Amino acid sequence: MWEYVTERADLIAFQAVQHVSLVVQCVLLGSLIGVALAVLVYRNPKATALANGMSAVGLTIPAFALLGILLAPFGFGITPAVLAVTFYAALPVLRNAVVGLAGVDRATVESARGIGMTRMATLLRVELPLAWPVILAGVRVSTQMVMGIAAIAAYVLGPGLGGFIFSGLSRLGGANALNSALTGTTAIVLLALVLDLLLVLAGRLTTPRGIRV
Amino acid sequence: MSETAPAPSAGPVAAGDRHISGVPIRLDGVTKRYPGQEQPAVDDVTLEIAAGETVMFVGPSGCGKTTLLKMLNRLIEPTSGRIHLGDEDVTDQDADQLRRRIGYVIQAGGLFPHMTVGTNVGMVPRMLKWDKERTAARIDELLDLVGLDPAVYRDRYPRELSGGQQQRVGVARALAADPPILLMDEPFGAVDPITRQRLQDELLRIQEELGKTIVFVTHDFDEAVKLGDKIVVFDVGARVVQYDTPERILAEPAEDYVADFVGAGATLKQLTLTRVGDVDLVQVTTAVAGSPSAEAVAAARAAGDDFVVVLDARGRPISWPTVAELTRTATVPQTVDERLPVVGLRSTLNDALDTMLAASQGGVVVTGRRDGLAGVMAVETVMAAIQRSRTEAAG
């Protein structure tokens, strides 16, 4: 196995960078979408219920099935991979953002309005900062989950480490098949841990001292 | 700010030469109906509040007093009726702009937990685009005004403060842009009785300095009597049952409803009406912490006092050792006696008695402006006042 890895170090590194790049970009995009949707729904109980239902149901869709569906309109390549990964990335963030925003003390919001902050200022300067730790927890869950889903995206010829796993699995028993699959899997797990660590660090740096636990 | 000037034309102004920075408030047929409810929450209220007065809204819960208060800064939009602040009809003004000119204090201060005390206090000036130096200076000035040392508290976060301190910061934030009007929604409801009494004293002291128009919602009638120049007693639908001075509401409740609400023991209510500043205080020997004990002892013996009130560098009382205790030390001790019973000049005799009992002492130290020493009051003074009001009641 070690030999296998050292011989292909360049390729593995390249695919690892591709994988992380796909995940990071999709998580960023997904988080923006998730937070934006949460902002739209969290004041309205019905819309909140709908959003929560959507994220629960969305997470039960098998990644394979979604990628299969996306193949029809978009064909093989980056587009279906990005769409699927972003879709899954948005769901945990949406859920946590709704919970986080709804969890902001109403008295705090009322006092923000009461001293003359506009709706937008209240959202940006009070509600989102206070919900931030919860939202960030959603981003962490999302990143972990999407690391795995990005691997499956290799099925539609998306970029990343999933290629090693699929090529390994498709020729099980053949030379280096197991090595290939194991390399892909191990690399994904390691990268997931590194990303999580970075997010924890980002959390420490971006959470205001007054609400750190 | 277009209307910080006093408007002397409107209504009776309490004390003659008191500095007033508030403006009058006039409510004209203000009504709030919620969809799906038969009875309006606030039904056609017409009310006038004079500039610089503290008006207390009291009534049972659900009577609409809080709704009425929140319509003043349009956190709740009135269904109909007009609201005037000073000479301005603000009913249709931009609500956000309006609120920056009205201080608003809620329970526990409503501070933003993710911002420092300084940032919290500076919120409104920043929204009004004051420059940095002016805002910073104002923050320090206000923290000082509410009795918090800016150097110590400016950069702390709300959760690092006690409930009473948070409430002070809430008041400081509300006063930041020097609004003519202060709305307070049961601000002292969540703190312990001793802290509440201190906060009340502080508010009275601040109000004496600033002369804002204050509208204050409370369910505590004693608080209303203590703080209010006037009290409005509400019934359901925010019906104004009686609007008068505390003295007159206690003496002549307009309806049985008010009498019930005011409660029995109206004689002892006189204790709530009489202020510490209204009775004769005893002047005692003082000594600055750190000065030679011998001088203080000599001064106390000369004056015939058996104890000395120790002041800190800013003239605030910190302890009151007996002469015997002082003779055992070389210099007057710097230690702050946490159990020193202190009340303000505007505290009621009731507060003073409470404080004495809580500290198991036969007297209290009285402080005036900026917590400086005003004198000492003995328990006998309270007793005399009780005796006097009982005699009055009997005669």
- The residue ranges of chain B in which pLDDT falls below 50 over 5 or more consecutive positions are 1-15
Beta strand % of chain A: under 5%
Please give the number of β-strands of chain A.
0
Taking all Cα atoms into account, the compactness measure Rg of chain A is 20 Å
| CATH architecture type of chain A | Orthogonal Bundle
- Tell me about the biggest sheet of chain A? none
CATH fold-level assignment of chain A: MetI-like fold
Order of strands, widest sheet of chain B: 6-7-8-3-9-10
Helix-strand makeup class of chain A:
mainly alpha
What does the oligomeric state look like here? heterodimer
Number of helices of chain B: 16
What structural category characterises the helix and strand content of chain B? alpha/beta
> What distance lies between the first and last C-alpha atoms of chain B, to the nearest angstrom?
53 Å
Averaged pLDDT of chain B: 86
Q: Domain count of chain A, please report it.
A: 1
Distance between the termini of chain A: 43 Å
Number of strands of chain B: 16
Largest two-chain interface: A-B, 19 and 31 residues
As a percent range, the share of strand residues of chain B is 15-25%
- What is the radius of gyration of chain B computed over CA atoms, rounded to a whole number of angstroms? 23 Å
Question: What are the secondary-structure elements of chain A, in order, as H or E?
Answer: HHHHHHHHH
